[in-house]
Amino acid sequence: MEVVVADTAGMCFGVRDALGVIAGLPDPAGVTIHGQLVHNEVVLQQLAVRGFGAADEADRDRLPPTPAVLITAHGVSDRERARLAGAGKTLIDTTCPLVRRAHAAAVRLRDAGYHVLVIGRPGHVEVRGLVEDLPSHDVVPDAAAVRRYPHPRLGVICQTTIPPRAAAAVRAEIGRQNPDAEVRFVDTICHPTRDHQRALERLLPEVDAVVVVGGANSNNTRELVRLAADRGTPAYHVRNAGDVRPEWFAGCRRVGLTAGTSTLDETIREVQGALARL
């Protein structure tokens, strides 16, 4: 069985930068990671072994006990930054620059008087950071959730890891259901998300099945799995080489391999090796 790796797969620059910052911190015990640095179990386990504490993403309203707080790649709202700084915490910021760009777009729309619609997953930590500074907003997960909004001006942005095709469907439905509203769309989908999806689209016609490596809670990883399934290609989401099952590939001659943007290079290599041994 031949294993074909997508020409773009794995860790994006934002995650690499965040890991580079945390690798240089001399006192892990004095730092609390404000949520999950990235949605990848392998990375989180490595950080725990080093001695970093982490706040549960569902329990971030509590003040961290350490003097320093590390803001994750997913970012936080300005309101949350002010709360932490006001409590005397030193902030170590690893927010992805592309998440910062999405936040800035939301603030500009807010200041211009738009009701902001965020195309994204309700409750996702990145989305929470985008909407907490907005007095008027809705989070729209898909086209089926779109409704008529009682606002004359609608500003639309995207969670950075939303698939472009999904965002386009939501955007079209917003226009259809709100024909009298002024709709302003700001495309805040990140380039790594686009590049990973396009690489997978090029790979799918060449393979009988595809393996997608990434964390169980990784939104962009799950979207890669969904893309493959939507195109009719069997897709298997694994966290590491131990999740690979030989029975998935009975009769397969070529298997594709890709990975989400928070997946370590070493994890991809280990999964590739496990596939090659089948």
The tally of helices reads 9
**CATH architecture grouping of the largest domain:** 3-Layer(aba) Sandwich
Report the mean per-residue pLDDT as an integer. Answer: 94
CATH class of the largest domain: Alpha Beta
Question: Which labels suit this protein?
Answer:
278 residues, alpha/beta, Cobalt-precorrin-4 Transmethylase, domain 1, Rossmann fold, four-stranded parallel beta sheet, 37% helix, flat
Short description:
The chain has 278 residues and is an alpha/beta fold.
Topology:
Blueprint: E1 2-5, H1 13-23, E2 31-33, H2 41-50, E3 53-54, E4 68-71, H3 78-86, E5 90-93, H4 97-111, E6 115-119, H5 125-131, E7 137-140, E8 153-158, H6 164-177, E9 182-185, H7 191-203, E10 209-213, H8 219-230, E11 235-238, E12 254-259, H9 265-276
Helix pairs in contact: 4-5, 7-8
3D architecture notes:
This protein is α/β, with parallel strands linked by helices and 278 residues long. It folds into three domains: 2-9 and 194-276, 3-Layer(aba) Sandwich (Cobalt-precorrin-4 Transmethylase, domain 1); 13-96, Rossmann fold (3-Layer(aba) Sandwich), CATH 3.40.50; 98-185, 4-hydroxy-3-methylbut-2-enyl diphosphate reductase, catalytic domain (Cobalt-precorrin-4 Transmethylase, domain 1, 3-Layer(aba) Sandwich), CATH 3.40.1010.20. The chain is built from nine helices and twelve strands. It has a four-stranded parallel beta sheet with strand order 1-12-10-11, with helices on both faces. The protein has a four-stranded parallel beta sheet with strand order 3-2-4-5, covered by helices on one side. Strand 4 (68-71), helix 3 and strand 5 form a beta-alpha-beta unit. The longest helix has 15 residues, at 97-111. The model has no long low-confidence stretch (mean pLDDT 94).
